[in-house]
Amino acid sequence: MKKIPIEKGSRVLYLSEGREKKEMAMDELKEQRFLDDLKRLRRSVKKGNIQLVEKVGIRVGRLKERYPSIARYYDIHLNLDEEEKR
């Protein structure tokens, strides 16, 4: 419990273990979905469904937009073969 003084009285802030567990579970679920989507993208590229480097970059950008709170903790690098660099 924390008392925060404001202009007209004060506010009381309560921290809850249950709320913390819920927030952590939500973050873990988001992270798992983000990683699953990245794996799906990788499989799609390996199969040849996505061939253009620009399209892969767009898909990665969309994943970062969809999961901004999780994506900021990951560095995603695109590794190209010699053929793809040309």
Write a brief structural summary.
With 86 residues, the protein is mainly alpha-helical.
| Spatial order of the strands forming the largest sheet | 1-2
| SSE pattern, N- to C-terminal | EEHHHH
Oligomerization category of the chains in this entry = single chain
Assign the structural class, choosing from mainly alpha, mainly beta, alpha/beta, alpha+beta, or little secondary structure: mainly alpha
- Total number of strands: 2
Number of helices: 4
| Poorly predicted runs | none
Give the overall average pLDDT. 86
Termini separation (Å)?
61 Å
**Spatial extent as radius of gyration:** 21 Å
Key features of this structure:
86 residues; mainly alpha; two-stranded antiparallel ribbon; 12% strand; FEMABX
Task: Give a verbal description of the structure.
- The protein has 4 helices and 2 strands.
- The model has no long low-confidence stretch (mean pLDDT 86).
- Strands 1-2 form a two-stranded antiparallel sheet.
- Helix 1 packs antiparallel against helix 2 (53-66).
- It is mainly alpha-helical.
- The chain has helices at residues 17-47, 53-66, 68-71, 82-85, and strands spanning 2-6, 9-13.
- The protein has a domain at 28-86.
